[in-house]
Amino acid sequence: MHTPDPHRRTAVPPARPTRRAAALALAAVTAAVGLVAAAQGGADAAVQGSLAADTQFYKDPTSQAVRWVAANPGDSRTPVISKRIASQPQGIWVANYRPDTVTSDVRTITSAAAQAGQVPVLVAYMIPNRDCGGASAGGAPDLASYDAWVGKFAAGLGSSRSIVVLEPDSIALTTCLSAQQQNDRFASLARAVNTIHAASPNAKVYLDGGHSTWNSPSEQANRLRSAGVLNSNGFFTNVSNFNATSNEVSFAHGVLNALGNPGNLHAVIDTSRNGNGPAGSAWCDPSGRKIGNYPTAATNDSGIDAYLWIKPPGEADGCAAAAGTFVPDIAYQLAVNAADPSTPPTSQPPTSQPPTSQPPTSQPPTSQPPSSPPPASSQPPTGNASCSIAYRANSWTGGFTADVTVKNTGSSAISGWKLAWTFPGDQKITSAWNATVTQNGTAVTATDLGYNGTLAAGASTSFGLQATYGSNNTAPSAFTLNGAACTTS
């Protein structure tokens, strides 16, 4: 994804791909998927690909950018970030392996989008061995589990229109797979396309097309064909990368041409960070970048369905902070020199207040703890630290996710929290969401992200993590909050 996500791959072998990283957090982008050109019958529709030019994509009122804007009204960066980033529809990453809740997680997004008359852009990011173990490592434990997960994901799409960006980097990045493993992955992706279309005929499914400085159009076309692209709606390019839109359009047409230009296939292009093009071969949080084309289906190109912000601007790739973490300095840099949104439908920021206990639905970070994490809270921890901790793990062979609920059981508010514990086994955290989590040996510290740092008396907040283990996945038995011992429940 790539970046929730490093998805940036640079030209040939040098730069690492992407994975804009992710894992249970969902974050959101929806677009009213428009009518097919033939159904439109007009000249305008004929040059727009398969989406109507006036398609409205879903704006997630709980995205990380929206929450940050709502929590920081006095910050000097807020007006620019609010108008040029938080106001825009962006991809919602479904990247944490939670098979028991993925249907309801997806349904929450698609139902809200349908009610708003918009089309959501959902990024399914759960392929096993994703990102080849890089900054966004993770995914389902095996392809059988992945096939089952896709069925549950598809069950949440419903009958309304939606866009599914299926597994960034899964086709372009296969260097860690044997020939047989690659074939097995492509077969699983082909099954996923059919599963999604069977469950939700109004969903448009796009497969991984890499980008213009990675594989050649002919090579990418061959891989896409093996992954069932002819039964899909097309492919996506430039996810979590920075290549100029014009280059991606040319590349997309090259891939379409290599596929024989089938009329049912089109491309969508990620323009969330390509306003200044790439910074050489740098893919991981390079400076000096800028947002590109605002999300729209009005591409005036019959082969390009839409320009989308699949990688939410401002979310780190894994160098400035853990992959998928919203960093306001990055967001501001991307937005400050960009043009203001030009059309009223995409210029008004969402008005919903940020949630305090639900994890984000976009791609969760899947990388190792950042070397210089962003400040967790603008205020030093204050207030009593009487607390209760609920630690709930969902395990499979060699890995697990854990949901951790922090409750203030004291009589006064807590402003800023830091939770610490020691793993009794050989667990190693690979990603986290709704908190900055660092690990040193068996010692772990989780710190609030500012927007969820204040807990009134009796209030609670939750965060999550994904980790691996060898032989011992015993849950921690003791926690301290701001240095004081907590009870467990």
Describe this structure in words.
A hairpin with a 2-residue loop joins strand 10 and strand 11. This protein folds into 2 domains: about 5-345, 1, 4-beta cellobiohydrolase (TIM Barrel, Alpha-Beta Barrel); about 385-489, Immunoglobulin-like (Sandwich), CATH 2.60.40.290. Residues about 1-45 and about 345-385 have low confidence and may be disordered. It is about 20% helix and about 20% strand. By secondary structure, the protein is of the alpha/beta class. The protein is globular.
CATH architecture of the largest domain: Alpha-Beta Barrel
Q: Under the CATH scheme, which class of the largest domain?
A: Alpha Beta
Helix content: 10-25%
Strand sequence of the main sheet, in spatial order?
A: 3-4-5-6-7-8-9
